UniProtKB/TrEMBL annotation:
Pathway: Cofactor biosynthesis; thiamine diphosphate biosynthesis
Top EC class of this enzyme: hydrolase
Domain of life: Bacteria
Domain Thiaminase-2/PQQC, residue spans: 21-224
Full protein name: Aminopyrimidine aminohydrolase
Entry function: Catalyzes an amino-pyrimidine hydrolysis reaction at the C5' of the pyrimidine moiety of thiamine compounds, a reaction that is part of a thiamine salvage pathway.
GO BP field: thiamine biosynthetic process; thiamine diphosphate biosynthetic process
Any GO molecular function: thiaminase activity
Length: 228
């Protein structure tokens, strides 16, 4: 199954871990969002955890500003922090408010282990490694949700209660952020590893980080299903 065009680096990373990638993007939780069969309690449980996730995820992207080597890299990272904290999280705040959960409760929600493991893995990739280590650890989250959003919005079921969630990730603004992230990632990879990046020893290590982050996304969906 091919995905949206978010650049060469992402296409190569995704193609090298097909099992992990489909376990993530075609997870039972995702199917339940698409056909509306996901229990509301599971969804709310996930969404509260995802708010906490986005707090730490925004911290990880902020580290990208610190590790950037070009103005284009810095701008993409700064823009993504803005998109996360000022746009994507609005979905969580609005949806939870309708269910009677206030934003202060979201901010102080108890973080589950699968959630904590994921974001701290990403932050550590950036602390221990360089800009590329950080970017490939961030990539599955961003591109995966872009791919899921596009697939679900094109699917038949119109009466899923999760249409707002789907619309957030299928939205042209989110998709545009993904396309520019993909362009920036390609440029960052070529700048550091050269056009033949896939032949470098470094690429195998970066692939390992991407695959691990993809596995941690699967764990996040599992947590969402179990928590309700
Ligand atoms: C767990 C997770 N992965 C990716 C995204 C997309 O930003 C999200 N909101 N949550």
């Amino acid at each position: 199954m091919s995905g949206p065009d978010y650049g060469r680096s992402f296409a190569a990373l995704r193609a090298a871990c097909p099992d992990e990638w489909s376990a993530y993007t075609d997870h039972a939780f995702v199917r339940g969002l698409g056909d509306g069969t996901l229990p509301q309690a599971s969804f709310l449980h996930y969404l509260v955890q995802d708010y906490v996730f986005l707090v730490h995820f925004a911290r990880a992207w902020s580290l990208g500003v610190v590790k950037a080597e070009t103005m284009a890299e810095m701008k993409t990272c700064a823009r993504t922090v803005d998109a996360l904290v000022n746009h994507e999280m609005a979905l969580h705040v609005k949806t939870c408010a309708k269910a009677g959960i206030e934003e202060t409760a979201l901010f102080s929600a108890k973080e589950e282990v699968a959630n904590l493991a994921y974001t701290r893995y990403v932050i550590d990739a950036g602390l221990q490694g360089d800009f590329l280590d950080l970017m490939v650890a961030l990539a599955p989250c961003c591109f995966g949700y872009g791919e899921i959003g596009l697939r679900l919005v094109g699917a038949a079921c119109n009466d899923t209660p999760y249409a707002d969630w789907i619309a957030t990730y299928a939205d042209v603004d989110y998709q545009q952020v993904m396309v520019s992230f993909g362009d920036m990632l390609d440029a960052a990879v070529i700048r550091r590893l050269g056009a033949d990046f896939k032949a470098t020893p470094r690429w195998a290590q970066l692939q390992g980080r991407f695959t691990k982050a993809t596995e941690l996304e699967v764990g996040f969906w599992d947590m969402g299903l179990l928590g309700a």
